[in-house]
Amino acid sequence: MSIQVSNLVHPFICLSGMYPIDILSEKRKIIAIIGSNGSGKTSFLKLLLKELQPKRGEVVVNGEISFLGIKNGLKPQIILRKQLPYFSTTNAPFPWPQFLNMPYQELSAGQQRLVALWLILQSTKPIILLDEPFMHLDDNAKKLACDWLNSVVALGKTIILTLHNLDELGKIKNLQILDLNCY
Predict the structure, then answer these.
(1) How confident is the model at residue 167 (pLDDT cuts 50, 70, 90)?
(2) Which residues lie closer than 8 Å to 175 by C-beta, 6 or more apart?
(3) What's the domain range around 162?
(4) Residue 149: C-alpha distances to residues 6, 15, 22, 41 (Å)
(5) Euclidean distance between CA atoms 58 and 48, whole angstroms
(6) Does residue 102 sit within a domain?
(7) d(CA 166, CA 164)
(8) Other C-beta atoms within 10 Å of 81: how many?
(9) In the chain, how many domains are there?
(10) Which helix (H) or strand (E) is 114 found in, with range?
(11) Please, which residues have CB within 8 angstroms of residue 135's CB and are 6 or more apart in sequence?
(12) Residue 49 falls within a domain, yes or no?
């Protein structure tokens, strides 16, 4: 499992025209892509997913990918208990049994994001892409999410996530940073 980006240039990625992007990552890493709105964070993830093609350079991903985008992917009107079998591929106990009989739409935005994040981190795939994973999370939920990220990386996975600033990451281990802020 590896990700290699060589001399990447794409018009949607702010700095790539001046400074082509190079990344080499093996397993057990978290790559944080930081930048302001419109800097190309989501476009970078789409390049890894092969939804976009680089203008120049090469993107090679060896390994299956799980992806959590801005939308959480769960059906709003269906209770969580009925949806979990479609998302969770492990036998890990669901951390919020009080939510199981609730329609997903009745959870707060922060609770919805935390549930979606927990589910994607249960994936058996070696690479996990997270677009703005801390969206709607309060400080306690962000700390919990960072603990989960560290645990998943310790199991040998690679996580690539986007965010606006590094302050959101707390105490993340094995961190590599790609700063797309335009100067």
Answers:
(1) confident
(2) 29, 30, 31, 32, 169
(3) 2-73+126-179
(4) 26, 27, 23, 19
(5) 10
(6) no
(7) 7
(8) 13
(9) 1
(10) helix 109-121
(11) 70, 113
(12) yes
